[in-house]
Structure formats: C-alpha cells, structure tokens
Design brief:
- By secondary structure, the protein is an alpha/beta fold.
- It folds into four domains: 151 residues, VC0802-like (2-Layer Sandwich), CATH 3.30.2130; 170 residues, Rossmann fold, CATH 3.40.50.150; 109 residues, Transcription Regulator spoIIAA; 177 residues, Vaccinia Virus protein VP39 (Rossmann fold, 3-Layer(aba) Sandwich).
- The protein is 32% helix and 25% strand.
- The chain has an eight-stranded mixed beta sheet. Strands 11-10-9-12-13-15-14 form a seven-stranded mixed beta sheet. A seven-stranded mixed beta sheet has the order 25-24-23-26-29-31-30, with helices on both faces.
- A hairpin with a 2-residue loop joins strand 7 and strand 8.
- The protein is elongated and about 95 Å long.
C-alpha cells in the first residue's frame, strides 16, 4: 500500500530516511513530502514517531477530476458509512491547483457535501462539521485533473507535540527544529554523551526537541488531550495496533527520561522567553535536564557549557540556533557576527547547526560551513549551515558576483551618483535619496545618511514599496535581495549599516513589519545644523530629506524671528531656525518621544534655555488657545491622526480651520509655510483667500534628488490678508 507523508519544503530527503528507519518498505522524496510504501501499521507508527512529517495521509480514493461535478461525484461514490459512524464529525482540508477548480474552500465544501449526502442517503444521519477537532479529518489534493482524497491519520498538524503552550515571538515549528537537530547529527552526538547549547533559545523549542530525542520520547506520545487515545476516530484506524505502539513508546519514554543527563543549556536576553521555555520544558518532562538562563550570548564563557558524561571531560557538543530574522530580510547582521565570534571563543571543538534568515546572514557569522541546506520556515526560504569544528579561522570575505538584476540596479545607482556628484559637493549634501524606484521592478527607495564623525562610512535606509498582489512572494524577495546586494556593493557598506523597511501583508491590510530596537543614533549635518537620526527603530528616520530646501529657506529667514513649528516631529526645522539666528522658537507636538528627540537635537547644537520652548499638546487645539505672535511659522501636519490623547485629525477636513488659526498668530509681516504629503489633497483656495494671501511654492521646494517624485509633498507660503 502507498501513502503520503507531507513535510516542509527542504525536509523531503530527511523525512524519507526517517520513514525507512521506522520500518517502511520504501520512501521516495517528492515536492513537500514523501511517497511511502508500507502498511497501515507503518503509517500509524509514523504518526507516533516521525519528528519531521507534517501530516500522514492514508488514501481513500484517486479519480479524474476535470470539473466541480466530477469532484463531487468521485467523493459521493465512496461508502462513507464504512468510514464514519453516526454522530461523528468531519472536516476537510483542501489544496487545489489548475484552472478547472481554483478555490480550495469551495472544493472542501463540495467534498463535505458529498460525505453528508452519502451518509444521509444510507441511514438518515448527517455528520456535523468540526474544524478544530473532528472525528475524521479528510485531505483533498486536486492537481493536473486528478483528485486524491485521504484520511489525515494524525487528525491535524504533527508538529504539535502537546508540550508547547507557552509561546514567544515567532516560535520555530517542532518539525523544523527536529530537522535542524538532524542535520547537525544530534542522533549520533547525544549517544556519545554530547551536550546541546542554544544561545538564543526563545521559548526553548530546539533544546526541548533535542532533549526529547535524547530521551527517546516519541513526538506523538502526548499530542492528544487524552494519553493513548487514537488521534483519528476514522473507523479504519487500527486501535489495537495503536495501543501497542503507544504502550511501547510510553515504556521507552519513562526509561529515557529517567536516564536523561543534564547536558542542555539555553540562554536568551528576554526574561519572558526564558519563562516560556521553562514552562514548556516542565510540560515536556525534561526540566531536570535543561538549564535555562537569562543571558546575552556575548557574555557566555567556556565554563558555562554543560558538563560531560564524566567529571572533567570536555564532551563533544552541538550548538543549535535560529537567530532572529523577519519576513523580509530585515535582521541585525551584528547579532549574526557576534554569534559566530562567541561560538568560536567558547566552543572551538564543537559542531553547530544554525538556521539563518538567508545566505548573506549565514555568511556574516564568519563561520566556515561544511554543509549548507535550503529549508523553509513557513513561506520563508532560509539557509541552514552546518559547521564543524567551530575553531576554523573566520572565512575571508570573498566578493560574490552580482546577479543580472543586481548588476542592473548597481549600474543605475552609479549613474545617479555620477549625475548628482557636483550638486552634492556644491551644496554640502551628505544625506540624500540615491534611488527611488528608478527601475520599476525594483520598487524601493534608498536614502544615504553620512555621519559627521565618519564621512567615509555611509549608512543606507531602504524602504521597499509594496509589490502588487499578483507578484509572487519569492520574486519580491529575490528582487529585494538583488537591490540590497547592489546597494552594498556600490556604497561599500556591510549589512549592519543597512536598515530595511518593508510592507508586509497582515490582518486589516498592508502594514509595516516589526522594526529593530537598536537605540542607535547617528549625527548628520544639514547646512549648519547637526541632526540626530535613527535608521532602525522607527518607520521614519527623524529627518524628512525632501524638506531639505524648505528647511534651508527657514534657516535663511529666521534671523531675529519668533519661530513656531507646528506638528514639529523631531524638530529639524526648529534646529535650522535656531541655528539661523531665531530670537526664540516654539515647537508643538503630541509625542513626548519626538519632543525629547528635538531636545537632544538642540543640545547637540549647543542650543537651549527658556527661549526655545517645547510644548506637548494637540497642535490644533493648542493653536486655537494660543495668544502669542510669531514672525515665521512652519506647519507640516500628518495626513491623518487618531491618537487616544487628542481628537481625530484629517488634513483635508481640518486644513482651513488649521490655517486660519495659524495665520491669526502671524505678525503683520509674518510668513507661514504650510506643507503636507497627502497625494489627493485639495487646498480650499476660496476659503483661504478670505483671511490670507496664499502662493503655492511646491516646485521650488522639491530637491534634485526627489525630482523623480515631484509629488512627494506640496507647499504654500501664506501671509495675513491686509
């Protein structure tokens, strides 16, 4: 008999070897799974003992499926009363490809209809649907005009071992953890008395899975709510055989856990992660053997490593780790470099199996990989490197040739830099936009920030624009990787000096992914002002480069003026006004974080005192209550704000009210500069004309490095109507 065991892409050959070792006659790797020759007992044993399989599927029927009618008819023809008892529940998981049947939920619904209709016709009963814990879980695959309908013998995903209930950020699936251990040779190493270290253990998945492997605990032993209960209530499931398998696994687990030595160490900088790991280890029954500590990996010493099988021995050991990375290549390379350096220092003779975000991040570790594998963490393609021993000298950096796409981006970057070189030199521009989706398929913006204390060591801020939904994720990932490779080569920057921001799909629509929390500020120069920027921690950097000409105008006009900055953000315009000789400045923003940033900017320039007032308030409400007079006002409001501490703000709806209140605060010859970046904004010219003379100056405020995107903002100059 043939059945199918599915798995994550990249684990197929590992799973095939595992199933043969479990007693199956033959196992052949396929896409995201293995075709297996064996009996029902082999399939049930795989449900209990496979550490790598996602599901074990026992086929019920295989038939031609050219359309929806054939899909229903093929399923309807089965004697479902032989597979279901009265009162049992059912669920259907569907995977479809091709042109005839394109909607998986619809296909699942038609299979459910076929089961219900067949049962109702046979004995009048109607099975209910239970998507969470059905008695019978079916699996449908429609591919190339064929339908395969199978029983999911495990009743659901097999990565669920039953012990992980305390979660932390982005936990690794247990099946993928088992693959990391297997590629590292843990089966052999633990038998030799080896220790296991995870210096970034999170909620403990790798360590706990490793301890359970060493203790010979079947991964499916405690998967269900009731120990020993068959995972599927399918009437064809051999319950007697399952009980025998389960009883044998229980005896092996009891003996293995009793003999399990304390050779497991996990550390993490996050106390909440360690708390979750301890809870999970206790539930898995391995807490007595696993040492879990709050610690930074850089602080680890050789003396911290777990002891060997005999006192004084230096055992062989395996390091496993899944360093953090997010969905779109944004990870901290400095952390990867620290990982490699720490492992070489504390465990030079050990082996390592490290699941990295991509090849570049693996390369940053400086470790010399003996083997390299491609694995998929969900939809993310990752790089698994196996290193042995860790003591090899760090790998020399070898420049790898750019792909054709990356070379095209690099050529465009070099052309732009040549074209703007004179302008940047004449104007003293050290922070600028170098690329703005110049090549449409490489849709991103690249901004350069040059610190004043390291003029030859620029930093890059990359913002990827959301790709159309019809472009596959793997293509957008490859294009982003090409763009980053090109940028790093052209500017000669290591990966840790590149900040990447990108939009990712999420509930409620598109959203920016999680940012690094590095707390790292650079000081850059703009004109005569020094400004602090942060490239990693926030959506924006603290400095809107497109407003450079407008800030220069403010600096030129500020001498002796009373300056007001509304919605001041980090106060770059305030600093320029102060440096330009403003008699006093007032800056208003609702955010305490931004006001502190402004305070730091002022201090960096040696500016302070009571003449430079910072006001934390709703700008519009404060303005309408203010009675002071100002000679120069800058107002750059957000498009929309719904802060809990203030009324909702919509620039299109509120701009007349806002500008009227601001103009009322102008001195007789005072000037208000108003700007916003709402693409669909329409100034109410007639309403504004009632109280102000208004001139649009947008064209003169767009700098050359934003010429490709002249709609980046619009700006107006207003004065009191006389």
């Amino acid at each position: 008999m043939k059945f199918f065991a599915s798995c994550a892409k990249g684990l197929e050959y590992l799973l095939a070897d595992e199933l043969v070792a479990l007693g199956c006659a033959r196992a052949t790797a396929a896409m995201a799974g293995v075709n297996v020759e064996g009996e029902l007992v082999d399939a049930q044993r795989a449900v209990l003992w496979s550490r790598l399989a996602s599901r074990v599927l026992w086929p019920l029927t295989d038939y031609d499926c050219p359309d929806e009618a054939a899909l229903y008819a093929g399923a309807r023809a089965l004697p479902w009363h032989e597979h279901l008892e009265a009162g049992m529940t059912v669920a259907v998981d569907a995977h479809v490809s091709g042109e005839a049947i394109t909607h998986a939920r619809f296909a699942a619904q038609r299979i459910k209809d076929a089961v219900v209709d067949a049962m109702r016709e046979h004995d009048g009963t109607r099975p209910d649907v239970d998507l969470d814990d059905p008695d019978l879980r079916l699996n449908l695959v429609v591919r190339k005009g064929r339908a395969i309908l199978s029983v999911d013998l495990g009743g659901g995903p097999l990565h669920r071992r039953g012990w992980r209930q305390a979660h932390h950020e982005a936990p690794l699936k247990e099946t993928l953890a088992a693959a990391v251990l297997a590629r590292g040779g843990w089966d052999r190493l633990h038998a030799q008395g080896a220790a296991l270290l995870d210096p970034m253990c999170g909620s403990g998945t790798l360590l706990i899975e490793g301890a359970l492997v060493a203790a010979d605990v079947a991964p499916g032993l405690h998967r269900g709510q009731t120990p020993g209960l068959a995972p599927s209530r399918w009437t064809g499931f051999d319950r007697d055989t399952w009980r025998e398998l389960h009883d044998d696994a229980t005896r092996r687990a009891e003996a293995g856990l009793a003999a399990l030595a304390p050779r497991f160490l996990g550390t993490d900088v996050d106390p909440e992660a360690i708390a979750a790991a301890k809870e999970n280890a206790g539930r898995a029954g391995v807490a007595h053997a696993v040492d879990l500590r709050v610690a930074d990996l850089r602080s680890l010493q050789p003396a911290d490593l777990p002891p060997g099988p005999r006192e004084g021995d230096a055992p062989p050991g395996l390091v496993v780790a899944n360093p953090p990375y997010d969905a779109r290549l944004a990870a901290d390379p400095a952390l990867y470099r620290a990982l490699g350096q720490t492992l070489q220092r504390i465990a030079p003779e050990w082996r390592a199996s490290l699941l990295c975000g991509d090849d570049d991040l693996a390369h940053v570790t400086g470790l010399r990989a003996r083997k390299r594998y491609r694995m998929f963490n969900g939809a993310l393609e990752c790089s698994l490197i196996v290193v042995e021993p860790l003591a090899h000298a760090p790998r020399e950096e070898i420049a790898r040739p750019l792909s054709d796409g990356a070379q095209m981006v690099a050529n465009r970057l070099r052309k732009t830099l040549r074209a703007t070189k004179r302008w940047r030199a004449q104007e003293g521009i050290s922070c600028y936009r170098a690329y703005d989706a110049d090549l449409p398929e490489y849709a991103a913006a690249i901004d350069v920030y040059t610190p004043v204390d390291a003029p030859d060591a620029p930093w890059l801020h990359v913002q990827e624009y959301a790709a159309p939904s019809e472009i596959p994720e793997d293509i957008t990932r490859r294009r982003l990787a090409d763009l980053l490779a090109a940028a790093r080569e052209v500017f000669g920057v290591p990966r840790e000096r590149v900040a990447v921001k990108t939009r990712a799909k999420g509930k409620g629509g598109s959203k920016y992914g999680r940012f690094d929390a590095r707390g790292e500020f650079l000081t850059v120069r703009e004109g005569d002002a020094l400004l602090r920027v942060n490239l990693f921690d926030y959506l924006d950097t603290g400095l809107f480069l497109d407003h450079r000409p407008l800030r220069a105008r403010i600096a030129a006009e500020a001498d002796g003026m009373r300056f007001l900055n509304l919605f001041c953000y980090t106060g770059a315009a305030t600093v320029q006004a102060a440096v330009g000789g403003a008699a006093q400045t007032t800056s208003v923003d609702l955010s305490g974080t931004y006001l502190q940033w402004l305070a730091d900017n002022l201090e960096t320039n040696g500016i302070g005192g009571r003449l430079h007032r910072l006001v934390q308030a709703d700008a519009l409400a404060w303005l309408e209550a203010e009675r002071g007079e100002y000679d120069l006002v800058f107002c750059d409001p957000p498009t929309f704000s719904n802060s809990a501490r203030a009324d909702d703000f919509d620039i299109q709806r509120e701009h007349v009210r806002l500008l009227k209140a601001a103009v009322a605060r102008l001195s007789l010859d005072g000037v208000l500069y108003f700007s916003n970046n709402f693409r669909r904004f329409r100034l109410d010219v007639d309403a504004i004309a009632a109280f102000a003379d208004c001139e649009e100056i947008s064209a003169g405020t767009i700098p050359p490095d934003f010429a490709r995107n002249p709609r980046i903002h619009r700006a107006w100059r207003l004065q009191r109507r006389r």
